[in-house]
Structures
1.
Amino acid sequence: MKRNVLIIGGGPAGIEAARRIRDYGHTPILIEKEARLGGHLAKWHKLFPDGESTEEVLTALTSDMEGIKWFTDTAIVSINRLKHLYVAIFSNGITVQADAILFATGFSLFPAEKKEEYGYGIYNNVVTNADLEHFFNTGNDPRIKDPKVIGFVHCVGSRDEKAGNRQCSKVCCATAVKQACEMKERYPDASIYCFYMDLRMFGRKYEDLYLNAQRKYGIFFVRGRVSEVSEDIEGRLVVKAEDTLAGKPLRITMDLLVLMAGMSPCIENPEIASMTGIHMGEDGFFMPRDLMLRPVESHSKGIFLAGAVTGPKTIPETLNEARAAAMAIDNYFKQKAE
Amino acid sequence: MRERFISGFDHFVLPFMLGMIFVLVWCAVGLIKVMVQIERKDRIKVYKSLINPKIMGKNIRDWFCDCLFHVKLWKRNKVLGYMHSSIAFGWFMLIVIGHIETFLYIPERGGLFYYPIFFRYFMAVESTTLRGSLLFFLMDFFLLVVLSGIILAIIKRFRSKLMGMRRTTKLTLLDRIGLYSLWAIFPLRLIAEGFTAGVGGGSFLTVPVNWVFASILSKPENFTIAWWAYSIALGTFMFVLPFTRYMHIPAEILLIPLKNAGIKVRRPRKGYALAELYSCPSCGVCLDACPMSVDKAGLKNTTVYYVRQVKRRNEPRALAIADKCLMCGKCSVLCPIDISATDLRLALRKRQPYNIGHDFSYLDKLPNGALSSAVSVGGEKVLYYAGCMSSLTPMVSQSVQKVLTTAGIEFTLMDENGTVCCGRPLLLSGRTEEAKALMEKNKEIIRESGAPILLVSCAICYRIFKEDYDLEGIQVIHYTEYFEQLAAEGAIKLNKQKLKYVYHDPCELGRGCGIYDAPRKALTRVGDLVPAGKERKESICCGGSLGSLTLSHEERGRITDHSIRNLTANSPDRIVTACPLCMKTFSRQSEVKVVDFAQVIAENIIE
């Protein structure tokens, strides 16, 4: 018996899950609120650790969408539970009956202007990691004009209780090192500093990336948080930080400061939680039924979770979780049929 | 009128007399204790104030307005005000008229404490005169007034909301004994006087009671029992009084002249502090006022319980409460006795040992010379101190500079080459000596600049510059006042837009320095100002206050939410505040955009 699975969120998790669910013989319906599929991935340029192009990854993911119904520019208006079914109304007017729902709604990028001390939106030469990827894609950003000194600030809105995000966003350390290397390739004469709390280069080949950044690219790593940023009369940035390893305060004048905005829970999570009864953790991410053994199932029957909706994850982890969710949904249907 | 007993004495007066003597001795000892503990120069100040007719006049007015009429409570809630003033003033009048009666009819007994109180027992009416009827009428009238207050007090115990109080204090056992005996005194007086009204005379209240008793009870001679009960109720109340909240009745009489003499809290539970601690009536107005009471668990950190713990000498608990406090000062403003809640706590904080050795040697290495060379002495008009918070909120100092530049005002940035902290955070944590080191350095920089005006954009810094820096000849001005002044003079022109603003009064600026109107006036020049649920002196702390040393992020977060809900009561488009810390705290959690006052002015200035 063919069953409908509604997948909310057309990022890597949603796309991969849709394909696998189709392969299991069910009917996936994928909706994405933005104009194109791909989520945050579509806005990125290259991926760590090997610099794989996001375009290639996305093309590979979306190459085979046969048998998947998908809608872009579409959001959920309401979800109601009938006995064994969910009835969802979309913003384009379509109503769908689904036997299971998969939330692959991902994360929201931490709004860097909340950390006003770094001057995002106030000073001219402060950008975020997302802005920089956009610049890599388009080659166009008025704030980046042949910089001679560049700084990367790690953990902007991550591991920061005062910003309301206690968790580590997991991917920014590697992203910062990757972006620093890419900037060095573009501007070989520039001096580049990375200000970090701890470097969490946990994945395979990430440590190589870090060593390469120092040996090949000559990037300076400073352990310590940036305390304040101001502008001098010429409009250059004056960055004050503390090198906690040397125990000395630093004061560096820079042309560009890149803020590594972290992953916040998706801003729509509270609304989704009240609509569906999914449990939300204290940190704002959704709670799976069991973090160890049932990481893709929610507390509500027939509702599943995949990707960064349950906490910060890398792309490979997200894709694996999408596959696990597809399998869990198929098992759920099998058990129901018995 | 004639005396009924030649001895002029009956054994039933003993409970009252013993209680009365006990209270008087206790109060006399307390008075001496307070006066001895007060510092010498403060003591001289008190004595001098007592011969100063202006201060003495104020004392007399305050005694009447605060102790008897409870004017502050009237302003808060009419029923609550009536309840307190009817009991206090009614009782006072019963005592006064009782004495008048005694002195008029039997002056030789005037020296006896109990005579005016039990006048109707000891006297018998022989003939009715107009003067006598009038006095009797007044006695019954004031008894009725007190009784109406007692009835309201009983209702308040069960339905405090009717009198504008959401929560009331948890009473101790002795407080309860005091309370019940107080409730009992006046109904018992009515019964006792009712019994004797046939002999001792009475008026519209006691005479009908006498008719009723006479028709029900065959032997009205047994009325001594009623007088015994009345006397015992009085005696009980007086014996427990020093150990209950009712100690505020005598203590406030002492507190008022001390306060008017300008005495401040110096030690956590001695001298003036002792007078304040005993003047606390445990009314619980601070329970509703305290921002920490958004959490039920936070209630125990309010001033009324702080006072109780200090009185019990439970120092660990008192210190825990003192450290939690946000120092927003809202309880003091609403308190009927103006208790110095923050000073009391600060006095305790100051006494704690402090093991962090601050190294202030960097102060000498600061590029002071660079600053003084940048400032041409006498040529500059304004010295602008942005403060360390402005490093976290660069928008504020940027906006202030934009406004100053547009207005064509010459200014120098005092902290361009590194801010020296104003010292307020250290002062708030009780570290006076350390704060002084910073203050001296800042004073030196300010004096050296030669600027006549010190402009400050942080409410926290402003308060310490105003209160604790001794900057004679230099005008310290907050940017809200300065910009309003510039706009009023026409030095800056502002655009009016169709935006609804709500203004948050920062604790340090509003309750701390009394600036409420300038920012509001300026905001009405650029948009519409909508009121918050509670504002001005009742504004709710943002939760980010430096004052608290131990409050957790979660607890602060809930206070912030509560404060935001209060501000957005009239759905404004923007929350405006004039303190960088409030702005930072609100913007973490607010859905409505939070902006600084300077930002609003800078955005709407016509260049």
2.
Amino acid sequence: MSDAIKITIDGKEIEAQLGQTILEAADEAGIYIPRLCSHPELKPIGSCRVCTVVCDGRPQAACVKPVMDGMVIENETPELLQHRRNIIDMMFVEGNHFCMFCEKSGNCELQALAYRFGITAPQYPFQFPEKEVDASHPDILLDHNRCIMCARCVRASQELDGKNVFQSIGRGFDRKIGVNGEKALGDTDMAVADRAADICPVGCIIKKRVGFEVPVGERLYDKAPIGSDIEGVRS
Amino acid sequence: MSELVPTIREICKKYGNDRARLMDMVREVQESIGHVPREAFGLIASEAKTHRVEVESVVSFYSFLSDKKKGEVVIRLCDDIIDRFQGADAIGDALIKELGIGFGETTADGTITLEKTACIGMSDQAPAMMANDTVVTNLAPEKIPGLVKQLRENPEPQALVTEMGDGNNADPLVQSMVCNNICEAGPVILSDYRKDGGLRKALTQTPEEVIEDIKTSQLRGRGGAGFLTGLKWELTRQAPGPDKFVLCNADEGEPGTFKDRVLLTERVDLVLEGMTVAAYAIGAETGIIYLRGEYSYLRAFLEDKMNQRRVAGLLGNNILGNEGFNFDVRIQMGAGAYVCGEETSLISSCEGTRGDPTDRTPFPVVKGYMVSPTAVNNVESYCCAARIMDKGPGWFSSIGTERSAGTKLLSVCGDCARPGIYEVPFGTKLREVLRLAGAEDVACVCVGGPSGQMVGPAQFELGISYEELSTGGSVMVFSNQRDILEVADAFMEFFVDESCGYCVPCRVGNVLLKNRLERVRKGEGSPADLDYLQRLGESVKFTSRCGLGQTSPNPVLSTLKNFRPVYNALVKDNGHGLNKSFNIMKAVEDASAIAGRRSEIFHA
């Protein structure tokens, strides 16, 4: 217990452990910091920036920033909520997201975040980029229209599956997730049982033949807003 | 493909089939066969003991690498705003006419590919281009037919160089028409100096004392961020780890900057001396110069200088007879990626991966290159460090201002009579810099490049310093004949092209900023669009992961602040709240095309 330290989030002092990130410490204390690319089983990479907080006066991604004793953190300020909303909007307009047709609707973390932030329509113009759909794999569909480049699949394949099915290719607005095969996902050693097949926060990686097993209306975020599980910890 | 297998195997073997040298392998494959064919990804991956997609990841990241076959000669016309204002568009038109192809295309005979590229560091002799590694400066449309004819007959770009530039540009290992254009030599770097005097003195002191001297001198990083160099060295020395590294950031990619080009041409020994002092202070045995791909014409010359230092006992084992002080340097070539000037991206690139930045906790001083303590410093910072050791920290800190010690090399370019390099003491007023360079009727100066600030005459009384007008060297001058928002637009285009795309705000936000700025420039904007630009710009700045995204909205934000009347003249509230960018006839045409019939109500 010698590693126990104190940090302050939005004026509330909480206990944290050295070695934790701000996000992990906040989760334990029942304080929800919105996030997308972060996943408890994966190394954090700080790519979506939704979890941006102000830490001792400077913006930091909570998922990668380790805690230090006495840190003072701002989380739910009007300014930060606006920045996060703007980032969520950006993810909607950079891809082609049609929630009403998407198998992931109700289980989608991007959609759930939008609801939590009260977003009914993005404030930025849709970019309508041309994206590929890769249906080459017998059991898995890859729909790049919905990819938000969180690289969860990249990390899950490496860290949890011991493979290297995915990697980022290209740069800038044309950056995308590439696959470790001559042409398409079907050329890789991806298996439907891989954790990488399960870990996509949006509807980019979809398993075939199990669509709509759980009816719309009974899905994860149909019942409670995203983050409720963490906030439920709060006593 | 099968005929290429031995070549590719040979290249990979040359770099020890080491995955960390993947950059060098793919660069050399490209040099040797003109591109990195997709069919070769698998072979390179298996030779380097990595995965095919990792090879694709690297090749697709750098703009000088390509998986598509290119011509024997690749012409890259410099497309930064300074070159455009000096007539690059007319050069482009002339090239298109003579070659009979557009940008991004290759002549039918496979001889010449035509491309555009970001600033190649020749803004003082614009318009300029690269033909493979050869730099061709001071282009004029009337020179293009002859130039193209010559390349068609002899696809050897070096033959285009008939007149050499000054100084070491004429060295047999450089043979370049590039000119130094040193206009003002200050006391620290460009005056005559005692060769290796700083290193010799440093070796009479303990490493701790050397660090103390650098700290006392108040030397701050010359790349622009201004971190205290002595403190950086101290943190690197103190960080645990058996191997430590000294990296020199020679990825001079900020448009309008070319002072490192001149230092690498005329002050290589001083750079290497400074790196050696750093290695001694930190306890490093290995150094890397990360040289931007655009400066590959200097590579052989630099390698030779390094060799000369090895022979003279200034690099290698037991340097200058100091038992146990071993240090050597290698060059890591870049391949066309501005973001690699960001220190963590630079490290990624040195490790042979794509140049994505990494998180700065831990900082490179603790875990940098090969997860070891690493000091990354600018070319100019190393020069300063060597001089501080020779002349003393007090001498150095007596020059400049209280918070900005020493001199600064400025690369002045654009609308002025004498573009070139100016070494001035920190605190020199911008107005004085403009006077020295012979700039008249100046409407706007971009200080620090696109990532810096665009300032107007009201700010010309401010001094060049970390506390007032901070710059890594770039000073771009724009006369009152120029459209300031055209400049801002070109800068946003640059950031859109150069964003690595890792984080959302930089990947998407810059595209949105550029699109909205275009709308305003076309006169289709409303006052609400200025709020949109401001708030979007602030979000990108606030939430982006690395220095690129944290500064990329500056062209928009600094012009909104300093040139508001220019925007106000373009946006008018039209009273009825209609969106001026919406064209009803165009929308109807699009819809008609989809529906396959004409509108009953709206038609021309």
